[in-house]
Amino acid sequence: TQGRDAWDRRLNVRLRGRVRLVNQGLEGACSLDLAGFDRLRDRLDLGLFGWMETGMFGRRAWFDASFQPFAELPEDAAAMLGQLHPALPMADWRQVFDTVAVLARRESGDRRLLEVQGQREGLRPVTWLVDEASGLVHAVETAVLVPGMGMVPRTITFEDYREIEGVRLPMRITTDDPGLGRVERVYETWEIDPEIGQEVFRKHDPAG
C-alpha cells in the first residue's frame, strides 16, 4: 500500500507529547521511538513520580523503571509486544501472522468496524478493529505481560491520524489494561528519520 511504501522509506520516527495516567491522576511527558516494524522504545516521564520504559529489538524486549529493576521479558511476551508495534497497521499482516481472518462487524458510536483476527502459532490471537469507511485501524485487542501481574487483557485505541510525509500516524493512543488502567498519550511533535542509536532499542541491564 501507499502508506506501507512510505513507511519503508523511513528509517526512524520519533514522537513526543504528553501522557495522562487517568486512574492514578498523574500527568507527564511521553516519547515513542520507532524503527521499521521490529524496534521501539516507549517512555513515560512522570516527574517526581519517576519514569518507565518498554522497548523491543527484533525478538528481544525489556522493561525498565525508576521504581523497579530492569527486566528482560520472556520470549513469548516479547513476541506479543511485537504484535502491538504502532507501525504494524501498515504492514502486510499475512507476513506477520500465520492466519488472518475477518470475524465479524461491530459498531462503536457512528463507526462501523471490521473485526480482523491475526493468529501466530503459540501466541494469543490479536484482534484488529478496522474502520470500514477509512480503512484505518481504530483499536487492537489482545493480552500482554504486565510485570507482577502476568498476562492481562489490553485494548489500544488509535485516534487523530495525521499524514506525515506519506505515512498516516495516530497522534492519540489510549491503552486500557488492569495494570496501569487507562493511559492517554497525545503526541504533539514528530521527527522523520532522526538519528536514533540502536542502543536506544537494545537497552541492557545496567547491573549486568
Description:
By secondary structure, the chain is mainly β. 9% of the residues lie in helices and 56% in strands. It is built from 3 helices and 13 strands, in the order H-E-E-E-E-E-E-H-H-E-E-E-E-E-E-E. A hairpin with a 2-residue loop joins strand 11 (150-164) and strand 12. It is globular. The chain starts with a helix and ends in a 16-residue tail after the last strand. Residues 4-9 have low confidence and may be disordered.
Question: If you compute it from the alpha carbons, what radius of gyration comes out, rounded to the nearest whole angstrom?
Answer: 17 Å
Percentage of residues assigned to helices: under 10%
Q: Categorize the overall geometry.
A: globular
Could you report the average pLDDT, rounded to the nearest whole number?
85
What fraction of residues sit in β-strands? over 45%
Helix-strand pattern, N to C?
HEEEEEEHHEEEEEEE
Strand tally is 13
Distance between the termini: 43 Å
Distinct helical segment count: 3
Biggest sheet layout: 13 strands, antiparallel
Low-confidence stretches: 4-9
Structural class: mainly beta
User: Which strand order does the major sheet show?
Assistant: 6-5-4-3-2-1-13-12-11-10-9-8-7
Indicate the topology.
Elements: H1 2-8, E1 13-21, E2 26-35, E3 39-45, E4 51-57, E5 60-65, E6 68-72, H2 75-82, H3 93-96, E7 99-108, E8 111-119, E9 126-131, E10 137-146, E11 150-164, E12 167-177, E13 181-192
Antiparallel strand pairs: 1-2, 1-13, 2-3, 3-4, 4-5, 5-6, 7-8, 8-9, 9-10, 10-11, 11-12, 12-13
Please provide a brief summary of the model.
The protein is built from three helices and 13 strands, in the order αββββββααβββββββ.
